[in-house]
Design a protein that fits this description.
With 156 residues, the chain is of the alpha+beta class. It is 33% helix and 25% strand. Strands 1-2-3-4-6-5 form a six-stranded antiparallel beta sheet, with helices on one face. Helix 1 runs antiparallel to helix 2 and helix 2 packs antiparallel against helix 3.
């Protein structure tokens, strides 16, 4: 797998999005981050929407964490979808695990298992939905940072 589908040839009025399927190898995590970075570049260059440096890093981190969790806890491939909303980016990962994740309470001494803590802290919204064959994890990240942060004004 590992194929990316860019939103270049979409019908007028269709959402701007990219999608990819990944098998679960370590290089796939880097490919998923690159897909997110490239998508954000298109948000700026093709749509003229500013993307803050913070948003660019946050989207890439959220993609990395969600795809990593899919590989770690679900057998089989995962599907990644990144979609432009009005002022944010929706990141959706489908995997085959039936168990819904548990967000653990912060514990500084714990080694690992902080991914969903990070995702929920950085996202406007976060939800997990059971599906007939697995689950769908959805996080939404704003395109611009908090107060006082300037938009990048260039390709992320």
């Amino acid at each position: 797998m590992g194929g990316d589908t860019a939103g270049h040839d979409r019908p007028a009025g269709a959402p701007f999005r990219v999608s990819a399927a990944y098998e679960g190898s370590t290089p796939d995590i880097a490919r998923a981050r690159e897909l997110a970075r490239s998508f954000l570049g298109q948000v700026w260059s093709a749509h003229g929407l500013p993307v803050s440096e913070r948003a660019s890093g946050t989207v890439q981190l959220v993609v990395s964490e969600l795809v990593t969790n899919a590989f770690k806890y679900a057998p089989g491939p995962c599907l990644l979808d990144i979609e432009l909303l009005e002022a944010s980016v929706r990141i959706t990962v489908w995997d085959s695990a039936l168990d819904l994740p548990v967000i653990m309470a912060p514990e500084p001494g714990r080694a690992g298992q902080h991914g969903l803590e990070i995702v929920t802290a950085l996202s406007e919204s976060f939800a997990v939905y059971p599906e007939p064959v697995g689950k769908r994890t959805v996080a939404t990240v704003p395109l611009t940072g908090g107060p006082g942060e300037a938009a990048a004004g260039r390709r992320p």
